Amino acid sequence: MPASDDAYGRALDLLEAIARAGADFERIDTHAATILLHGKSAWKLKRPIRFGYLDFSTADRRHAAVQRELELNRRTAPGLYHGLRCVRRDEDGTLSLDGAGTAVEWLLEMERFPDRALLAHLADAGMLDDRLLTRLADTLHSFHEHAQIVPGGRGAERLARVVEGNAASIAACPEVLDTRQAQALIERQRSLIRRFAPLLDARAEAARVRVGHGDLHLANIALIAGEPVPFDCLEFDEALASIDVLYDLAFLLFDLWRRDLRHEANLVFNRYLDLSPADETGAALIPLFVSIRAAIRAHVAAATPCQAVEARNLLALAGAVLMPSCPVLLAIGGLSGTGKSSLARALGDLGGVPGARILRSDVLRKRLAGVQPETRLPPASYTPEASAAVYHALGKGVAGALAEERSVIADAVFAKEDERRAMAVLAERAGVPFRGIWLEAPETVRLARVDGRIGDASDAGRAVAAAQSGQTPDGVEGWTVLDAARPLAALLTDARALLR
Fold first, then answer.
1. What is the pLDDT of residue 469?
2. pTM: predicted TM-score of the whole model, two decimal places
3. Residues 6 or more apart from 344 whose CB is under 8 A from it?
4. Does the pLDDT of residue 42 top 80, yes or no?
5. Backbone angles phi, psi at 458, to 5 degrees
6. Complete domains list, the chain, with CATH
7. pLDDT class for 473, splitting at 50, 70, 90?
8. What is the pLDDT of residue 3?
9. Is it the case that residue 5 has pLDDT exceeding 70?
10. How far out from the chain centre does Cα 457 lie?
11. Using CA of residue 199, residue 201, residue 205, residue 210, what is the dihedral sign?
12. How far from 35 is each of 7, 206, 330, CA to CA, in Å?
């Protein structure tokens, strides 16, 4: 063993002995770090390793890495990251933690939390509810908006470097990952980067490339004091973390999608875009971004012998998410309280990753007013002219998504015939199937639902819902009428049948 590795080993032995003396000791070894859990603390050391994509082979490199990890993770989890500690060697060679002498090894001290707080564990237990995922999307959007902007443009070039790095790492694992399958995947990703180069470059020029998290999967997000807290970001290579914000988000979408949590992935995707108009046109990149994320996880898994099957499955997923899907336009109409938005959310997972873009008139109205979705608007925002502007924005958004070959769900009242007809025309122009669903429910049911709304984008209260009772269209030609007084599960079954 080299002298430097021997010093690391002695430092680790000291720290483990100290940690074992505490309560509830546990040691976790990952491919790049060793974590010592004891009491309320977690000590994290970088392992003396070198891969093609990271180098922790010297004490100085490991020191720089934990220092950078502390700085970067305090952006999202200041309460979890306490600071650095140091193993030192005195003149007679004795090692001590935070004592006198020469620095031998640096470690990161963090707040310990139970494994059950990880969103990966909550996902396994079926406990990722819509409210938590909405808060998570809000947290990530806020983080990205405040993250350091990376100047210089070259969005396509940045992504191409990631793909070439993947190609080299995958090629180094021929005994695990099928070479022909991998080559086909890499060629497909290269082709898509060439196709989307203008969009990728435009997003970089528009400040959508930032110093992100870089490793945003469910095992790196914890539920702390009721709030989702991302931690353990990518710190060893700033270039790998200087990425398009949607590529950062795509790791989370990938992790949800691979677990077959498609509704959850679609909810996060739509909430993020609802908050971020600047990223609306970038949504076409999500399948490519998810594919690249899956390829990264494939070669990381391939480096661990016991994960060979998972590595192959991930490589297959990286290809599958790039398979073309047949887009569709679904419009859901009905008076306030009929459950349009609930049905839209439940149907959002249709099509390929990340599912359909749900364009809701209530959210678009808030966007036009320059406020957050849940902000209440004054009556002046509900004039006929204002409503016409909302439907115009809805049509524009639908047309844009369909042009990018993405499925869309349009969620609005659609009380007027011309509003309903406009949706069918947009689908015809795009050459995609159209389905219109009109929801009906008794006034008593609608009023009860409106009364029960909490933190919703709709401003329609009891008075508005009651006044709409006389506005039911005489007919909704070409649309399927469904009884919305029934439970959502029954309604969802009928709606899915219409989409087959």
1. 83
2. 0.93
3. 332, 358, 360, 409, 411
4. yes
5. -80, 135
6. 7-112 (no CATH), 119-321 (3.90.1200.10), 329-498 (3.40.50.300)
7. confident
8. 40
9. no
10. 21
11. positive
12. 18, 39, 49
